[in-house]
Amino acid sequence: xxxxxxxxxxxxxxxxxxxxxxxxxxxxxxxxxxxxxxxxxxxxxxxxxxxxxxxxxxxxxxxxxxxxxxxxxxxxxxxxxxxxxxxxxxxxxxxxxxxxxxxxxxxxxxxxxxxxxxxxxxxxxxxxxxxxxxxxxxxxxxxxxxxxxxxxxxxxxxxxxxxxxxxxxxxxxxxxxxxxxxxxxxxxxxxxxxxxxxxxxxxxxxxxxxxxxxxxxxxxxxxxxxxxxxxxxx
Length: 234
Prior knowledge:
CATH topology: Rossmann fold
Shape: globular
CATH class: Alpha Beta
CATH superfamily: Alpha/Beta hydrolase fold, catalytic domain
Distance between the termini: 10 Å
Number of helices: 10
Order of helices and strands: EHEHEHEHEEHHEHEHEHH
Largest sheet: 6 strands, parallel
Radius of gyration: 16 Å
Strand content: 15-25%
């Protein structure tokens, strides 16, 4: 395996440990892996955090984003970045928000499962209701694991939901997409649309899987990441 650093960016209702199964498989191939802590506060602020991680790395980078993490990785322009991998993730165009993209096609039931928590700064944090987390987010995980993940989920702020994207890097970088056909958070039609629009090098669609692919389908996710590394790192 060629030398590269893979930066994994989690999305809403998850946290960095959701990548553990993917991390162990990538490390088996002697890759350096960083699971970045995504604050989930705003597109601009979250992008600055991950951009700082990328800037600290010597050598080529492959960026991998799950869910809202896809919007974050799409905003980072750095010559060290050689490939993008979207894991059940948003890949917005300039001026788009994930709220708009999620509603572009029918099929998402996320809105009816959310528990809004107002904050003192006037914004609102959004959680998935714990009793609805398993079906909504992680239906192909064992129920006991989904129950734990529901407790440790990180909320997404409404400023991030409505934050507009800038010029996306996927117009200039090779991209890979992996997503599920039983995703109740981002409709599969939206995934297909975004992959086609980005001119994805490869698109992998997993039958019967749900939105939480890093946790539920780590082998398939790792395989796509490895393909991106092998194809683009020299």
